[in-house]
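From the methods appendix. Each design record in this collection lists the discretized structure first, followed by the designed amino acid sequence. Records were kept in a plain field format so they could be parsed without special tools. The example shown here is representative of the layout used throughout.

RECORD:
C-ALPHA CELLS (512 positions):
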C-alpha cells in the first residue's frame, strides 16, 4: 500500500522547498519528491569529465599561472564537448560555472516546431535553479501596474497587488535581502535586511545616468544568496525527502480530488506512488504543466476539462549588450547579485506609464584599465493562448515518459520591443562612455532568460485559467500549483520573489 502523508510537494526548488518548509512548520507531515539524481562516473563519463575539467579551469588560482587567452580557449573547447550531452544547457551563461548543475538534455528531451526554438534551461536537485552558481539573485516585487490592466493588455490577474503584500513580506524575511531602498513608481519597497549604499563606481554610473535622463528611475539591485528551505523543512522533523523521484502524474480519488502522486526513478525506471489529500506541484513552470497534461480524474484528463491548460506561456524578451567602459573608481570586489537596476528604462524620457515596457540590469566589473560592462534588458511579453505546450504525439522519452512539445515564438510586438530595447542599450552605453563589443540584433530565443512562466495560470474562472485565485486547480481540489506556471503575466521583474509569495499565500490557504 502506498505511504500516506498530510501533503506531498513535487520539486525542491525555490517554490517547492518553501512550500515544504511552510507546510512542515504548520504541523503537516510532508513528503518532498525531487527528480535530482546522482549518477556514478561510469554512467556519465563524458559529462563528469567535462564538469570536473571546467571546475579546474575556472579555479581562480589558475589565472595567476596561465594566460587568460589559454583559459578562454580551453573553456571554449570544453563548452563544445559539453554540447554533446547538453546542447541546450550550454546556452545558459551560467553553464560554464557548474555544468553538472544542469540536466543532461539527452536524458530529458523535448521537441519544438521547425523554426521556433525554445531554450529550456533546467536543474534537477535540492534547491533547483536557485542553487546554480551564477544565479542572478535578483528579487523585485511586482507593482500595481504589473497586475494590470494595461493599455495594450487586459489584466489576467484575479486580484490586486495588495493581496500579495503580506506574502512578499514573509518571503523577504526568509531571504534577508540586501540592496537599495530607492523610491520607485514601479518597484514597490521590499523589506531590506541589509541596506546598501552605492559604492564609488556605482555613484559614477548613477550620476551619469541621472544627468543624461533626469526622469529615469534608477536604484541598486535587491539581492540575496540562496536559502536552504529543504533544511528548514527537515529541521521540523516532519519531512520525508525522496530524491530520484521524477513525478509523472497527479493521482485523484473517486471524488475527483487530488489523492497522491506517481513517480519514476530515473536510474532504474521503477515506479512508486504515495498518497496525500494535499499536493503542491512545484517542478518549475513547464515541467509542472507537463505533469498536469499527463493527469486526470474521473471526469477525464485535466486538459479536456481546462481549455487554458498548457497555454499563455510567457518569457522575458531578453537582449544583452557587453562592452568596455572607461576606468571607474576601484572598489572592493562586488558581491554576487549586486548591480544597478533601471526599472522601466523605456520611460526615461516620459511616455505611457500604463503600457508594457522593459527594465535594464547593469553590471560592471571594475578594473584599473576599464570596466567590463554588461547590460541585460528584460521586456514584458503579452500572454497569448497561441504560445503553448502540449504532449508530443506518440513520442516518449526514456522509461516511457511523455515528452513536451513547446510551441512558443516571439511575434511582431516582441520583435518591435526587442528592436527598441537594442537601441536603448546602445544609448545607455554611449551615455556612460562605454564601447559596445557584443550586442545581438534580435532577442535571445524564448526560454534563454530562464524566466519562463505560464502554462497553468491562475485566474477568475475555469474557462480562461487552470488555477483559482488561491493557486488551487479548478478541476482537482487539493492540488495547488505554485511555481512559475501559475503566473498570468510577468511584468519586467525577475519572477522568483513573486513565485515564492504566491507559494506562501497558497500554503496558508491549504492549511486553512
Ligand atoms: C543562471 C540562472 C540565473 C537566474 N537568476 C534569477 C534571478 O536573478 N532572479 C530570479 O527571480 N530568477 C532567476 N532565475 C530563475 C529562477 O531560478 C527560477 O525562477 C526559479 O528557480 C523557479 O523556481 P521553481 O521552484 O519554480 O523551479 P526550479 O528552481 O527549477 O526547481 C524545480 C525543482 O523541481 C524538481 N523537478 C523537476 N522536475 C521534476 C519532476 N518531474 N518530479 C520531481 N521533481 C522535479 C527539480 O529537481 C528542482 O529541484 C535564474 C535562473 C538561472 C538558471
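DESIGN:
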Amino acid at each position: 500500500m502506498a505511504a500516506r502523508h498530510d501533503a506531498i510537494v513535487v520539486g525542491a526548488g525555490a517554490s517547492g522547498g518553501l512550500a515544504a518548509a511552510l507546510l512542515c512548520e504548520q504541523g503537516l507531515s510532508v513528503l518532498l519528491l525531487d527528480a535530482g539524481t546522482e549518477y556514478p562516473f561510469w554512467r556519465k563519463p563524458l559529462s563528469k569529465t567535462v564538469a570536473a575539467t571546467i571546475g579546474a579551469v575556472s579555479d581562480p588560482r589558475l589565472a595567476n599561472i596561465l594566460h587568460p587567452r589559454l583559459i578562454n580557449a580551453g573553456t571554449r573547447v570544453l563548452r563544445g564537448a559539453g554540447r554533446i550531452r547538453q546542447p541546450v544547457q550550454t546556452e545558459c551563461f551560467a553553464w560554464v560555472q557548474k555544468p553538472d548543475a544542469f540536466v543532461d538534455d539527452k536524458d530529458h528531451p523535448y521537441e519544438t516546431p521547425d523554426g521556433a526554438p525554445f531554450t529550456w534551461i533546467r536543474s534537477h536537485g535540492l534547491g533547483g535553479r536557485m542553487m546554480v552558481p551564477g544565479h542572478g539573485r535578483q528579487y523585485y516585487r511586482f507593482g500595481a501596474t504589473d497586475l494590470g490592466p494595461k493599455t495594450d493588455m487586459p489584466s489576467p490577474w484575479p486580484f490586486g497587488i495588495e493581496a500579495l503584500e503580506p506574502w512578499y513580506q514573509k518571503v523577504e524575511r526568509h531571504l534577508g535581502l540586501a540592496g537599495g531602498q530607492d523610491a520607485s513608481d514601479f518597484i514597490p519597497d521590499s523589506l531590506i535586511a541589509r541596506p546598501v549604499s552605492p559604492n564609488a563606481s556605482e555613484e559614477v554610473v548613477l550620476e551619469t545616468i541621472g544627468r543624461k535622463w533626469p526622469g529615469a528611475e534608477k536604484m541598486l539591485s535587491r539581492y540575496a544568496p540562496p536559502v536552504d528551505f529543504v533544511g528548514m523543512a527537515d529541521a521540523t522533523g516532519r519531512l520525508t525527502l525522496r530524491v530520484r523521484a521524477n513525478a509523472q502524474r497527479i493521482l485523484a480519488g473517486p471524488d475527483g480530488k487530488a489523492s497522491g502522486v506517481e513517480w519514476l526513478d530515473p536510474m532504474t525506471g521503477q515506479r512508486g506512488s504515495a498518497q496525500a489529500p494535499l499536493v503542491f506541484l512545484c517542478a518549475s513552470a513547464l515541467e509542472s504543466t507537463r505533469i498536469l497534461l499527463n493527469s486526470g480524474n474521473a471526469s477525464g484528463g485535466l486538459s479536456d476539462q481546462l481549455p487554458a491548460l498548457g497555454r499563455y506561456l510567457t518569457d522575458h524578451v531578453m537582449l544583452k549588450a557587453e562592452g568596455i567602459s572607461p576606468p571607474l573608481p576601484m572598489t572592493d570586489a562586488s558581491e554576487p547579485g549586486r548591480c544597478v537596476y533601471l526599472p522601466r528604462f523605456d520611460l526615461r524620457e516620459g511616455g505611457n506609464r500604463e503600457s508594457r515596457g522593459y527594465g535594464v540590469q547593469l553590471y560592471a566589473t571594475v578594473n584599473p584599465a576599464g570596466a567590463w560592462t554588461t547590460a541585460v534588458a528584460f521586456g514584458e511579453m503579452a500572454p497569448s493562448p497561441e504560445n503553448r505546450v502540449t504532449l508530443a504525439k506518440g513520442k516518449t522519452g526514456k522509461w516511457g515518459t511523455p515528452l513536451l512539445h513547446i510551441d512558443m515564438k516571439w511575434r511582431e510586438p516582441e520583435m518591435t520591443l526587442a528592436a527598441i530595447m537594442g537601441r536603448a542599450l546602445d544609448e545607455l552605453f554611449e551615455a556612460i562612455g562605454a564601447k559596445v563589443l557584443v550586442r545581438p540584433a534580435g532577442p535571445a530565443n524564448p526560454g534563454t532568460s530562464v524566466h519562463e512562466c505560464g502554462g497553468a495560470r491562475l485566474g477568475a474562472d475555469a474557462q480562461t485559467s487552470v488555477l483559482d485565485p488561491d493557486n488551487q486547480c479548478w478541476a482537482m481540489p487539493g492540488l495547488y500549483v505554485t511555481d512559475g506556471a501559475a503566473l498570468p503575466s510577468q511584468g519586467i521583474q525577475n519572477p522568483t520573489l513573486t513565485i515564492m509569495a504566491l507559494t506562501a499565500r497558497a500554503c496558508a490557504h491549504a492549511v486553512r
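APPENDIX NOTE: Residues 412-431 form the longest helix (20 residues).
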